[in-house]
Structure formats: C-alpha cells, structure tokens
Amino acid sequence: MGADGRLDLRAVPDAETTPRSAFLTSVGRERSRLKTFFASRLVFDPDLSAEELRGFSRTVREIEWLLLVLVLLYHAVLTPDDESADAIAMALFLFGAFVLSFHYLNFYRRESHWKLAIETWVMIVFITWILMYTGRLESPLLNLYLLVVIASALMLGKSTTFLQMVLIAACYLWLGYPERNLALAVTSYVTTLTAQLAPLVLVGYITTMLANDIRRALIEIKSLSETDVLTGLYNMRAFAVLSENIARQAERYSRPFAILMIDSDSLKAINDQYGHEAGNRLLKLTTRCIQDELRQSDLVARFGGDEFVVLLPETPCAGAVQVAEKILKAIQTTPLPVRGQNVPISASIGVACYPEHGGSVEAIKEKADKAMYVSKASGKNRVTLYGYRADDRPAVAAGA
Q: How many CA atoms, within 13 angstroms, populate the side-chain half-sphere of residue 210?
C-alpha cells in the first residue's frame, strides 16, 4: 500500500512466503514466461488477438472439411485398388475423428496458436498418407499441401510457416525416394525435387508477406480507432470498454476505484493569444504531466477538447484526492514555453469514487464532472471532491 492509500499493483507479494515455495514459484513463473516468449515471439505471430484466433479456428475447420470432401471425391470417382481403398478409408476415418474431437466434442477447448499448429501438422500427416496410396509425387492430390502452406502463412507467421515448409520438404523426399532411378544423378534428383517444391515455397513466401502487411494495416487502424491522434491517449470509445472491465472487477471483489475529471484552464487563452499550434502543445504537455503521476495500471483518456478523464483502480477517495493534487502540482510547475517565454498553466480537477458516489462508471464520471465544474466556478486551479463545497477540504486551491 502506498503512502496515498492506493494499492501498488506492481508490488503485490507472493501468496507463498517460505524460501522453498518462493523458489518453486519463481522457477515456475520463469518457466511460464520463457514458454510464453518462445510461443508468442520466436515461433508464432504475437499480434493475433483471441477473436482472431477464434476466427482462424473456424477457417481451419472449413479447410479440414474441404480436405475430407476432396479425398472422398477421389475415392468415389477414381476407384483405387482394394489395398489403397482400405488405407484411404482408414485415413478418412481417423482424420474425421480428429476434426470432430477438436471442433465439436470440446476435446481442446481453448483457442491458441498451439491448437492451430497441431491441426496443420495433422493435415500434413493426413495428406502425406493419402499421397502414399494415390501415386506419391504423381498423385493428382499433391497440391493439397498448398492448403496447409496458405493456412499457416495467414495464421501462424513466418517462423511456423518455415517449419511447415521444412516438414513438407521432408515428406516430398520420403514420397519421391522409392521412385528415384538409382542410375539418376543426385544433382538431377535434387533439381527435380526443387522444381516440385518451388511453387509451395513461392506461395508460402508471398502469402506470408501479404498477411504481414494486412495485419500491420489492421493494427494501425485499430490503434487509430482507440486512441486520440493528438495526445496518444485512449479515446472515449476505448475508455468505455476498459473502464467497464475494471468496474466489474471492483464490484465482484468489493474493491474501490476513483475517477478524475481534469479540465485545462489555460487552453482558450493560449489559443486566442498564441494560436492553435501552441494550444496543441499545451494539450500534449498536460497529457505528460498527468501520465507522470499515474501508475501503469491507471487508465487515462482524452474526454474531448481540453478535458481528460482518469480512472484509478484500487484507489479510495483519500488516495484519489492526493493523486489529483500531485497532477495539479505537476501542471502548475510545468509552464508552457511559447515564443521565448514560459506561460504558466493550470487545471481544474473533480474527483468522485466508487462505491461512495455511485455504482457505475457513468454515474461516478458524472459526479466527477460536477465536482470539476465546482472547481472552475470557485476560481479554477484547484481539486474538488464530489460532495464538498469549494471552500471545504479536500477542495485544494493552488498553493494551499
């Protein structure tokens, strides 16, 4: 707990305190961290969201059914010999059972990179099995490998796609070896296999590059939709989503939180006297002053115009007022440099808390907004807690 009564979320002690349990906990945490780093950075695409993983899982399921349908059509139309027909039927049965268990029987409930990777590996095994009994490298189904390459490039990133390509190349070597003429020169054999693999490599490379470009564009669009362009803070759309999550946790575990409404007192005067470019620099400076006094777990957004909103999780009223005072002091002591002079700036801040002033984010934000207007009506440059008159504590004027 900090001096201002706020829970420091970065300094929560471990539940186990004995030396042995602490050591085991540390080892487990480090192992989990390394596993996550390996999975999310070295092998898989780290930018996929949970929603994207669910969407890709549906896509993989459709690809798997497509594979089954194509092989069934081959089995029905070309009528392979009895031995091949039995092997293909067995492969269809096992692959169909795998698809059902993964997607319909909840055998693997959680969508993840590993689930998608396992499914692509099983598809490679299934396709290789089918090719063994349909002509090996002369099989009309040889290009089914393209489905796996494209799916991997779109979903799992460059590293995984490269590993899939290595595995497919090994399958090509294995499928082609029995047909190799022993008198054929090694260089000719390698050249033939390279020519057969080249389309797969080209498709994998192009698809991976396109997928990366599309994903970068989508991330940028998402960022623009959630942040204020001028200050880089969350906009109110993002704030509404994130604040509701914090409010639900606070209600569930009976924990406090507070909201600050901050209005820059100086923006209109600076815009009028020095122009809008100076006003924009004022907003950026105010943003920096606010962020410097917040924890990583706190949430700040631009409310609109010259107003900002801050949500402080795990913060009672007393702690929230102290944070507001620190922000006000930081703004007061950070003048705006304009045309060779330092222009003093100030802000009016309103504070409201959960559960004292309401049971929802919107209700508490409304109370904080009212407290902010009390600060402005009382001479600006001060902090007011909702429910207090401007001349009562903890309403704090400049220099108080």
A: 11
Give the list of residues 6+ apart from residue 332 with CB closer than 8 angstroms, or none. 344, 345, 346, 381, 398
How far does CA 222 lie from the centroid of its chain?
A: 11
Residues 186 and 291 occupy one common structural domain = no
Q: Which two tokens stand for residue 229?
A: 């362009």
Give the angle subtended at the CA of 94 by the CAs of 92 and 95, to the nearest 5°. Answer: 65
User: CA dist 106 to 113, 155, 334, Å?
Assistant: 16, 21, 58
Which tokens belong to 17? 């305190």
Largest CA distance in the chain: 101
Measured CA to CA, the distance from residue 398 to residue 268 in angstroms comes to 20
Nearest to 303 by CA among 356, 252, 349: 349
List, run by run, the mean pLDDT of 10-residue segments along the chain (400 residues): 52 39 44 44 55 80 90 82 86 90 70 82 92 87 88 81 87 72 58 77 81 70 75 89 90 92 92 91 94 92 92 93 95 91 93 92 94 92 82 46
Q: Please give the pLDDT value at position 113.
A: 78
Number of domains the chain is built from: 3
Structure-token pair, residue 184:
């054929």
Q: Give the pLDDT score at 361.
A: 92
Encoded tokens for 182:
């022993």
82-103 vs 113-132: helix axis angle to the nearest 10?
170
The verdict on 155 and 201 lying in the same domain is: yes
What CA–CA distance (Å, rounded) separates 347 from 308?
A: 10
Q: Give dist(CA 73, CA 80) in Å, integer.
A: 12
Q: What is the pLDDT of residue 13?
A: 38
CA-to-CA separations, 397 to 132, 203, 326, 386, 388, in angstroms, rounded: 83, 67, 12, 15, 13
The structure's pTM equals 0.56
Predicted pLDDT of residue 31: 45
Give CA–CA dist 138/156, Å, rounded: 29
Residues 166 and 280 in one domain: no
Element (H, E) at 112: none
Last residue of a domain, one of 225, 250, 283: 225
Domain of 35, in residue numbers: 9-42
